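Newbie here. three chains, one complex. Structure please?
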Amino acid sequence: MKITRRDFAMAGAALAALGTLAGSAAAAGIQELKIGVVGVLSGPAAQWGLALKGAVEFVAAEANRDGLIKIDGAPCQVSVVAIDSKYTAEGGAAAANALAGQGVKFIIGAIGSPELTGVKPIAKRNSMLVLASSYAKDAIGPQWPLVFHVGPGPSGWADPIIKIAKQKFGMKSVVLVAPNDQGGTDIVPVEAEAYKKNGIAATEEYYQRGTTNFAPLVTRIMNEKPEAVDLASSPTGDAGILVKQLRQAGFEGPIGRLGGPGYSEISRVAGGDSVLKNFYWYEPIVVDEKAQMIADDYKKMMGADRPENNLFFQWAAGVRMVLKAIAKAGTITDTAKVAEALRSLPVTDPNIGTGHWIGQEFFGVNQELSFPFGVGLITDGQLQPITRVEAATGK
Amino acid sequence: MLISSQEAAPAGVLAAAASIAAIALAFVVPWSTENPAIYSLVDQILIAVTAAFSVFIMLRMNLMTFAVPTFMAIGAYTSALLGLRHGVTDVLILGACSFLVPMLFALPLGALVLRLSGVYFVLVTFVLTEITQLVLFETPGLTGGSNGLVGMPAVTLFGFELGDNKGVLLVTIGLALAGALITSAVTLGLHQHFAAIEENELLAQSLGLVVWHYKSFGFAVAAGVAGLAGFALANMLLTAHPTSFSPLSSVNYIAYVIIGGKGNMLGPVVGAILLVWAGDMFAFRGEYSQFLFGSLIVVAVLVAREGILGTLQRVLQPLISLDTRRPLHTASTIPTSTATESRP
Amino acid sequence: MEGIVATILIGVSLGAQYALLALGFTLIFGILGVVNFAHGGFYVLGGYLAYASMAFLGTPYLIAVILAALGTAALGYLFERFLLDRLVDDHLSTLMLTLGLYLMMSSSLLAVFGPQSPAFTFPLTGVLRWHGFFIPIENLVVLVVCLVGISSVYALIYRSDFGRALRALADDRAVATAQGLRPKLLFPAAFALATGLAGLTGALVTPILSLAPHVGDPVLATSFLIVILGGLGSIGGATAAAFIVGMVEAFSAVYLGGSKGALVLFVLVLLMLVVKPSGLFGQRVRGA
């Protein structure tokens, strides 16, 4: 009896081991560059991960079509392994470990701060190169030489957007609203600082993640009588309800959302542009004709529409940089050499434009990609064309 | 009924020994492979097993707890704070503290929640996990708030640093073993008392058993075992982070026990191995991972009512009885408590 | 003073929505003894059914709401009849089963409708304003429908034969069965009633808030709080507790902020249990 039971437990462990090994035993013939994707693919934040996954799959297909990666003259097939990190530190760590077990050397993601916290130590232990996007104050840094940031983060774009909004709406005070977890606390203090630097008084309000009805919070905000409200990194659904309920409560001032893309979803939930009325937001990308070509190519090659979330473009430009660096370094194993090549590459993308490496001032290391971005504006209920802003210099 | 419980004891001992042996067997891994994916999987399984033992202990008293993440958090933050603020790296001291501090928290909390029974207890422990999250967010000075605590020094054993993959796994195995030993000592040592409480608390009380003492003690030990799991988790991730202790993660620990089989200590081990492994495999399926995990739970519950282990025993019993000279009833007594529990 | 009245208005409309949700949750528990982890799932499903019937079938909103309530009730009926019923007395298994169902439901919605909120808004907009107070018309309509819903549930439970049968089953199943009531027929019906209520609430509330595959997650925690406070299985208790929770949530969020306010709410519930462990209106505790 004892033996049977123990055998059963052992069989489970052995099965588990086999399952993870099976992946690495594949691909023996032609050289293969495996790009790992660590992103949240399930749950409320799934759209971020799906945009990331779509971008990496697209850029990999593109590289294979063009024969971009050659190692010692021999073509190298790019493949993608995507793992759901479930927006938790242990999900990120497990995903990074699973990728390490498959011999993956390059990770694109994670997106959220908790996931990245889990990924970084594992990546360092296995000398993997990481291109991540969290807004955490310590997302990158000198102690993580192989971790790069697709960006910029709020430290890069908050100031230019606030300047435009101030010129347009002339507000003197703002209340910043965001969830009370890392998704909010990473970003709001940075933005509050940027508002204050521009002479706008800023106060911070945090709500419990998972709140569905914001009527009480809106009453609290109204009591503070701010001239503007910034929804920062509140998830798009929450931001939509907040806008609607603020307007219902009679708030007339401008509302900003300096946190990420998602204008169209906010407009849908709030009930249209006329409800948004005066609204300004960070748009990671100006989808002009050139950028639209990425979306068209995506449809041609992948046979489906691109993921709706606009971070898709930012990721595509970032992943292209990484693949260019790999091609330039001529190695798919030596990540230090690829990192060296990546740092020395000029920041440019045929569809998105040119930018810079920034981050020295904020993170202490110049490993943050800064591409041109956009500022969205709605004035008096009319959607304005997205203003293109030159890549932030981070100073 | 007490008689049947006494009969169940030897089978429980057997299962406890088997689960301890299964955990100890993990010591083979660090010396047989360098694959980080396998290390990670074994780490996750063992942490899951340890946390599931906490649920298992409470189930001995017919109480289902959702509070595991709460006590895991206390254990994790205790070890992280000791390492960061006080430079404590000795794994024995950290382990002891991550066991004892959650126990200390559990005593007053137990006075509050152990007066409840049945579904009340279930719901209140769920509320506790929600409170845990909010308390972490609202105390950034102590716990790092939403950012959690990062950058703990690597733990040491007798001066040797245990910072690499191998070291982390050794620490996890050690903590899981400690958790298993404590769990078996408590559940087997107090087997009769717990069984009496489980079957009929009022009757046990009227027969002179100071139910109150045993329940508090059981709750505190369950909290301590969860704390060990929390320490192991923080040590593996190099961070104590609020997302690791989310209210819904408690459901996983319960699932390990129920899917594996709640009749004896081997159940949580089997359940954790299956579900953690499946969860890792499903993560490759991206947006379908949750669906697959949900269907696995539904199928497992429908097909294996007494948990995988319990059902396996029932199915295999006739086969085994053919080639053993043992009388049948020894094996069949194991699920007695299960059977009585599920009466209407 | 204005602030207090405005906050009370918010508390009442929160309370009405919570009551409709918690009634279903507490009915299932009181009658079947099942803690339904999928309750939030039926709420979201109701929202999506209403959205889909408007967007793809072109029905008016009123019909969409009715279809949503009927659709979630039908799914609840099938779920109880064919899956849950076989395990109905095993509390741990039913908990796992409803949990697995919830994971499947929310991930299916994600796969079918995508992660982003669709355009699903309430047909009536506009805000009534009076001396500095305001109430959006949509909230008023939802409040009225919720109150009608709550009264109908009361009428059904306390004035109809069906309700009497359910209450008898909840009181003492053995005796009720011996007297000829048939759980096999009544349980799926009760479950359908409860999930239909959740679907109805979802169809009503998601257009004035937002609809996304995971907006059901918080429903569970709120329902938990309410049934703890109100006393498990008690219909009157759940209704009263829903309004208390709505009121406390409104006041604590307005005067303390969103995050601290939530903490206050949870701690209040915990402290209440010290004073009265069976909930405000609970009489006896059902064992699990």
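Moderator note: Chain C touches chain A through 42 residues (CB under 8 Å). Chain C has a mean pLDDT of 88. Thread marked as resolved.
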